[in-house]
Every structure is written in C-alpha cells, then in structure tokens.
Amino acid sequence: MRASWPARSKRLQATSLAHSRPITLALAEDALADLIHRTDRAVRLPDIGKAICEVFGLDGDSLQSNRKGKGVSHPRMLAMWLARKHTRSAPERDRPLLRPPQRTAP
Q: Residue 22 is part of which domain span?
C-alpha cells in the first residue's frame, strides 16, 4: 500500500525529531526507503538464458537441446534455479523456457 504525501511528510518529520537530525536527502532516503518505488529492471527468462550461455560459453540453442551431458545439463539446472528464484510470476516461470516439453510417440 502506498503512503500519501502527507503521511510521508509526517514520517520524515518524526524521524528527524527522533534522531535530532535536520531533514536531508540522506535522512529522507533512510526514513522512506520502504516507500520509495524501486525502478530495478525485472529479470526475464531470456536474460537468464543469455547470461548462462555467456558464462558457460554455450550457444543459444544448447540450453534447449536434448543433450544430457554435464556441459549442458548443469548450466540448464542453474538457469532453471535462477528462473524460479528471480522471475516475478509463476506463469512466466512455468512457461517452457530452456527446454521444449518432452513429447511421446502416439
């Protein structure tokens, strides 16, 4: 829930009085840190795949291949762990990113 400007102002004034410090930018940042909207860029699944490929020296299709060797499976597991930990929504996470779904013969 977002606090209104009067509420933020009161909080800033109360913090200033409680710490016996004048209102400065540093004090405002500390006092209102949990209310300030963060503008960090959200991590997306393609970003994770690209970063893993760069670090492990793989081409872009390697993570989606059916190969099962350690050179591909460990980076793939790391990418999936990072996706679960750092992506925002479950639908984005559960969408097949790194490997196509397994298909069975009819």
A: 1-39
Asked if 56 and 30 sit in the same domain, the reply is: no
Question: Residues 51, 52, 53, 54: is their CA dihedral positive or negative?
Answer: positive
Residue 25 falls inside a structural domain: yes
Q: How far apart are CA 23 and CA 12, in angstroms?
A: 7
> Residues with Cβ < 8 Å from 53, sequence gap 6 or more?
59, 60, 62, 63, 75
Per-residue pLDDT tens over the stretch 26-55: 888 888 877 766 656 677 888 888 999 999
Cβ(43)–Cβ(87) below 8 Å: yes
What pTM was estimated for this model as a whole?
0.50
Res 105: pLDDT = 65
